[in-house]
Write a structure and sequence with these properties.
Two copies of one chain form a homodimer. By secondary structure, chain A is mainly alpha-helical. The first copy, chain A, has two domains: 49 residues, Orthogonal Bundle (Arc Repressor Mutant, subunit A); 129 residues, Tetracycline Repressor, domain 2, CATH 1.10.357. Chain A is 73% helix and 0% strand. The first copy, chain A, is built from eleven helices and no strands. The longest helix of chain A has 23 residues. Chains A and B meet through helix 1, helix 6, helix 9, helix 10 and helix 11 of A and helix 1, helix 6, helix 9, helix 10 and helix 11 of B. The structure holds a DNA duplex.
Amino acid sequence: MAKLQKSIDKQNALFKATLALINNGGIQEASMAKVAKMANVSPATIYIYFENKQDLVNQLYLNVKASFSKSAFDAYNESLPVKKSFEHIWFNIAKFKMAYSQEAEFLSQCDNAPLIDLEIRKEGLVHLQPLLDLWKRGQEEGIIKEISPFLLYAYSIYPMAFYLSSVVNDICPLGDDMLKSAFQLAWDSIKV
Amino acid sequence: MAKLQKSIDKQNALFKATLALINNGGIQEASMAKVAKMANVSPATIYIYFENKQDLVNQLYLNVKASFSKSAFDAYNESLPVKKSFEHIWFNIAKFKMAYSQEAEFLSQCDNAPLIDLEIRKEGLVHLQPLLDLWKRGQEEGIIKEISPFLLYAYSIYPMAFYLSSVVNDICPLGDDMLKSAFQLAWDSIKV
DNA sequence: GAGTAATTAATAAATGTTCATTCTTTTTTT
DNA sequence: AAAAAAAGAATGAACATTTATTAATTACTC
């Protein structure tokens, strides 16, 4: 067992514990002591891997965001037509949110509460470029409405957070047809 | 000056301080000591008006949610056609979020972070009924898609939170046309 | 046995909450 | 209408815990 691997494992254990605690009771319930206990580690050990608590949370955010972005553009092929491309990315994101609902919940908490330093949050947005490019292409082809990417995101991607959190909390049912409906809404809103 | 009025004033000062602090740095920055100082009150005084910190935050949530709902259905007339009705409510909400951006920001923080007790959160949803009724009418008339109200909300109302927070943070410009575009997206997504 | 990883134990500061007490207002008695 | 009594509102200081963070010490690996 390589030393490096062990380090990574311990980091991941800390990430996992922090994520679970923050998801359950917010940042106020995620004390360093609890994180340490949940990761089977002494509190002092955390400071070997992270500068301080804020750094721990920031790094967790970047970590989760990276895995989100990776999923979003998994097997993405720019050569497909605009709608097909968008559909591909959209369902990738939906799949991520279903499969990693804890991570998804954490991300939307970060996007709406002042948990993460602003610079770090900006850093996490970088990976979205392919989607912005796609929208631009769609607009040039006259397929997608000529409006700010903020609006496009707000109406075609952002709603998934709400809908899928309802699903996860068992307030709202889920079926394959349900997901298709959701995509239809997303596409109807941004298509020209 | 009636005693009752003075009580209400003090409660409102506490609400205002709590809101500001939570908005700025999350619940962890809103200590009872800071809330008290900001409201020009002794920490012990808070416990005359509220059971404990959680109760303070819960009551604040209900208070803000009530004023939100009131705005949403301001001058709302059920006798108008479905689209006109929806437009009315939609712009009411938009106006609220612009005029009371602090309150709006707080609400979306509450909806995505475990700040508020679940029962209290449910209590805050009650006032949305007229909108649900409207959607039902629209569906009966074949104007609005036959899908779960969760999806309808996720795509026609929820996006405003994202878009208008971008506006407030000066990341995204705002114009009257911009708002009209946003409404167009909302309507396009749910209309049949 | 050198060097790093991890722990225990300790730090000061901050946390939510309560206490005994004072100040202010209202009610009762004269 | 004035004085006395009761009640209520507000306070600052103190409470025991908990907080994030470090210093000193031990365990482990190469």
